[in-house]
Specification:
The chain has 168 residues and is α+β, with helices and mostly antiparallel strands. The protein has 4 helices and 4 strands. It has a 4-stranded antiparallel beta sheet with strand order 1-2-3-4. Strand 1 and strand 2 form a beta hairpin. The longest helix is centred in the middle third of the chain and has 24 residues, at 96-119.
Length: 168
């Protein structure tokens, strides 16, 4: 009996590579062009470029933990990326509702790992705020990819879409 091999979704890792490339390019630009801890207005009262650093995770979680968190978040990122990569290998290539979010999370996680290993912290530079009243914590392209991927995973789990007829 001859088994027919279905193409898996590992090709979607090209999206991860794109996220990593954009993230690292943008951080290089930030490190060579923006002053530290100085707001550069993009849209007055709403959006600044603001070069800052984060040794922790989202919202500076564990930022002052003494250094061990760098390795913890690095191992965690590799573990999650490995698991999502394994799931991509089991996902049909055309299932973009699973593959795209996984690829975004992998790209974002690896983009931030590169920073942690290269600099000991993550470079953040996008700052949204409302006038001078509320400032959202600074973030970067990798963070955006992780959040978008995670939101898509959640939404596509809740709203799975139309069922496709089974292949014969």
């Amino acid at each position: 009996m001859m088994m027919r091999v279905r193409p898996n979704a590992l090709a979607w890792l090209l999206v991860s590579v794109l996220v990593i490339a954009l993230d690292q390019w943008s951080k290089h630009w930030v490190l060579t062009s923006l002053p530290e801890y100085t707001a550069v207005t993009v849209v007055d009262g709403f959006w600044n470029w603001y070069r800052t650093y984060n040794t922790g995770a989202a919202f500076s979680f564990l930022a002052n933990a003494g250094g061990w968190q760098t390795w913890f978040f690095t191992v965690l990122a590799f573990a999650v990326s490995g698991l999502l990569g394994f799931w991509l290998s089991r996902t049909p290539r055309g299932d973009w509702r699973s593959a795209l979010p996984f690829a975004l999370v992998i790209g974002g996680a690896i983009g931030n790992v590169i920073d942690r290993l290269q600099h000991g912290h993550v470079v953040d530079f996008i700052q949204w705020h409302w006038k001078d009243a509320y400032y959202y914590p600074a973030f970067n392209i990798a963070d955006s990819a992780i959040v978008c991927g995670a939101v898509m995973i959640a939404l596509f789990s809740i709203f799975p879409g139309k069922n496709k007829p089974a292949a014969r």
